[in-house]
Amino acid sequence: MCGAEVKSLPEGVQRVAALLQASAHPHAPVMLDDAARTAQQAADALGVSVGQIAKSIVFRRKLDDAAVLVVTSGDQRVDEKKVEALVCGGKRLGRADAAFVKASTGFTIGGVAPLAHVTPVVILLDQSLFRFDELWAAAGHPHAVFRLSPQALQRLTDAPVADLAVDAGEEQQALARAITLVTLRAQTVASAADVPSPCISICRMNARTDLCEGCFRTRSEIAGWSGAHDDSKRALWRLIEQRMQALQA
Predict the structure, then answer these.
(1) Contact 205, 212 (CB under 8 A)
(2) In this prediction, what percent of the chain has a pLDDT beyond 70?
(3) What span, in angstroms and rounded, lies between the C-alpha atoms of 167 and 127?
(4) How far is CA 26 from CA 20, 62, 85, 104, 180, in A?
């Protein structure tokens, strides 16, 4: 890629292209016709399996407000507990909103590259990436991607490799336990003088559903519970039961 071509790219892609060029990486960023904000969109556009998309997930480390970027295969979900065990010193990971992602990486969500960040970022690679000979990663813009091998990704990021994906069997067991406990509590709502809280002391937000894994409420619903009237609480209980049924379908 010549200098004129680099200068015509969006700023974030220019940063990625410059780092790849300086690292003698053989594959420059490619601009897609349509945005590839999700792993599936990227896979469809490139004609590859979704697992070959190296997706970057950003978390906020509560200990020091540092950005933690986990790169995993597009067909996997990140297990936050595994990440916390490696980088959080017993503390918790927080959710990274769009502003935090932009400020820490210099990229917008949907185009976060695994390298060329504007601030120091803690980077971890999931071992599921090494199932493939060829990967595609975001290159600093929702329309931009670049090709590389898992080994090249590790070399370019100098990041450790670990098992960071959710175990599907364990996830289903945990979901079943939570649904059982919340369902038992739901049976007391109709006769209770004070509407009971759905909380079963499992307080973790699911990044895929944006619901608490212990009570199946959103953050705003959890925050508003104490100030809600009983009719609103009962209505929320009905919504929770619907969500649990959908999760079991």
Answers:
(1) yes
(2) 96
(3) 13
(4) 8, 37, 35, 27, 53
